TrEMBL record:
Record's subunit section: Myosin is a hexamer of 2 heavy chains and 4 light chains.
Residues covered by region (Disordered): 1-25
Gene3D superfamilies: EF-hand (1.10.238.10)
PROSITE patterns assigned: EF_HAND_1, EF_HAND_2
Protein name per its UniProtKB record: Myosin light chain 5
Organism for this UniProt entry: Platysternon megacephalum
């Protein structure tokens, strides 16, 4: 949530202003335009958000299967091809590599993850859940 600042206008009236983010000052105008164009290409339904359906559409247009892409990412951490990764190893990697997750984010992920009694995450089932959603009991 952006913080708000109050600025005094002429005549003494106060007006709330959104604090500006400085993130775009790191890029040239041509780069910002490229980001906007890329976002527009991915936002297939033009609702201003990139959601699961948009990602499915973009993967399909690139000839890629989203589920297979995610599976391949998990397979990198499963050199023996067992189909599972111990949750502690996955948690450690996700908290220390690239876009670091918090312990709370990982615990939330594990709540809906197929983890056996030994603590192994069945990443094939997990990838299915990510790409197709959880099955709902009726």
């Amino acid at each position: 949530m952006a913080s708000r600042k109050t600025k005094k206008k002429e005549g003494g009236a106060k007006r709330a202003q959104r604090a500006s983010s400085n993130v775009f000052s790191n890029f040239e105008q041509t780069q910002i335009q490229e980001f906007k164009e890329a976002f527009t290409l991915i936002d297939q339904n033009r609702d201003g958000f990139i959601d699961k359906e948009d990602l499915k559409d973009i993967y399909a247009s690139l000839g890629m299967d989203g589920e297979e892409t995610i599976l391949n990412a998990f397979r990198m951490f499963d050199p023996d091809g067992k189909g599972h990764i111990h949750k502690d190893n996955l948690k450690r990697m996700m908290m220390t590599q690239a876009d670091k997750f918090t312990a709370e984010e990982i615990d939330q992920m594990f709540k809906s993850s197929p983890i056996d009694a030994a603590g192994n995450l069945d990443y094939k089932s997990f990838c299915y859940t990510i790409t197709h959603g959880e099955e709902k009991e009726e």
